Amino acid sequence: MTGSTKRSSNSQKTSNASQSDNRRGGLYGSIITGTGAALPKKILTNADLERMVDTSDEWITTRTGIRQRHIAAESETLSKYGVAAGRQALEAARLDPADVSLIICATVTPDRPIPATACTIQHQLGCTKAGAFDMAAGCSGFIYALAVADQFVRSGACEHVLVVGGELLSKYLDWEDRSTCIIFADGAGAVILSRRSGQGGLLSFKLHADGALSDFIHVPAGGTALPASAETVRNRMHYIRMKGNETFKLAVRSIENVSREVLEMSGLTASDINLMIPHQANRRIIDAVGSRLGIPPERVYVNLDRVGNTSAASIPIALDEAVSRDLIHRGDRLLLAAFGAGLTWAGAVIEW
Ligand code: UT7
Predict the structure, then answer these.
(1) Which of 86, 153, 318, 328 is the most exposed place for a label (fewest CB within 10 A)?
(2) What is the pLDDT of residues 157-201, one digit of tens each?
(3) What is the pLDDT of residue 261?
């Protein structure tokens, strides 16, 4: 699935943004008007993990770049963090909850299988005029949700959409599996996507999937394929399983390729990008992608050393951090790219 608002150095073409927008379809453009993020208080360090599984700070740091991660308390829910991140995004956008007409929560770790966590967020934020639903696209979930939100804004159906990317992956981790429990983490990020007046905003996106490789990252039981039973619990089938190394190799190639696609769709090159915000999966993936694309490390945002891999939450948390640190200015071009369970991968270019 694709969308682009082609930029051009031809001044006659760029001055007519609505013509480009119409080519992509829709009456309007969309732009991020507010961001927010929320992380659990509890920090789990690599030294803590050394006491839990057969691993070492040295292995985790060199193989992933992660030094610590935030882990929710047992009683906490994803919606708690989605609400906190969403409230910040609303405040940053200077909106009332009733101004939001749609809430999309990208997650694979909802509060419960039924109903959608987005509905809990809707209720707790007091977004009384909003529809709400969840979307599952693994670690690419935030970009998928942003692309869906863009369609509602672009068509004129919604003026403001709250997009939340959130995960409490700790609840789905096998704390005896050292290949997963050292990388995944908890948190939520959020943005408000609003109708755009003028240029800029979401310039392009591209969504990909390959369900043939669904077993690369999956939870075997708890769905209709294998409903929960005493046996599935006994066999630890409700935890995330990942073919880490195979996933790693595909992630590098796919993130590179989708980044090139969305850059081309926007009429931009890597040198036009002020800040790349990649999914924070593994430092080695981020470094390899940056170097293949020719984007220097100082223009690639990294926070996974402190935050870990929060799946659908990782890009909006990193984006909110970069905004709070005043690293993003009006007119800056951002490249977002992610890869995850599905398999899915996705990219987007935003002009701030
Ligand atoms: O979030 C979106 C999707 N997910 C990703 O993008 C994750 C991509 N994958 C990765 O980040 C990496 O593959 C991992 C961090 C998960 C694993 O790193 P790796 O370099 O691919 O390690 P590996 O799975 O190839 O394992 C190499 C060795 C093995 O030992 P042997 O068989 O060579 O003796 C593993 O048993 O490292 C061992 N190992 C560990 N050792 C210490 C695996 N996990 C650990 C650990 N501590 N935590």
Answers:
(1) 328
(2) 999 999 999 999 999 999 999 999 999 999 999 999 999 977 789
(3) 98
Q: Is 194 in the same domain as 86?
A: yes
Is the pLDDT score of 280 beyond 60? yes
Catalytic annotation present for 309: yes
Q: Are residues 56 and 148 in the same domain?
A: yes
The answer to whether the predicted template modeling score (pTM) of the entire model surpasses 0.85 is yes
Q: Percent of the chain, pLDDT > 70? A: 93
Instruction: In whole angstroms, give the CA distance from residue 346 to residue 147.
Output: 10
Both 160 and 234 in one domain: the answer is no
Beta bridge partners of 103: 132, 162
The verdict on the CB of residue 303 being under 6 Å from ligand 1 is: no
Residues 192 and 277 in one domain: no
* Catalytic residue (one of 105, 119, 127, 139): 139
- Using a 6 Å cutoff on CB, does residue 283 contact ligand 1? no
- pLDDT above 90 as % of the chain: 91
Reported residue count of the chain is 352
259 shares a domain with 208: yes
Residue 134: domain span: 29-198
DSSP sequence for 192-239: EEEEESSS-EEEEEEEEE-GGGGGGEE--SSSSSS---HHHHHTTTTS
* 340 shares its domain with 248: yes
Distance 220 CA to ligand 1 centre (A): 20
Contact call for residues 348 and 262 (beta carbons, < 8 A): yes
Last residue in a domain, options 143, 169, 198: 198
Dist. CA 29–CA 351, nearest whole Å: 11
Q: Are residues 208 and 194 in the same domain?
A: no
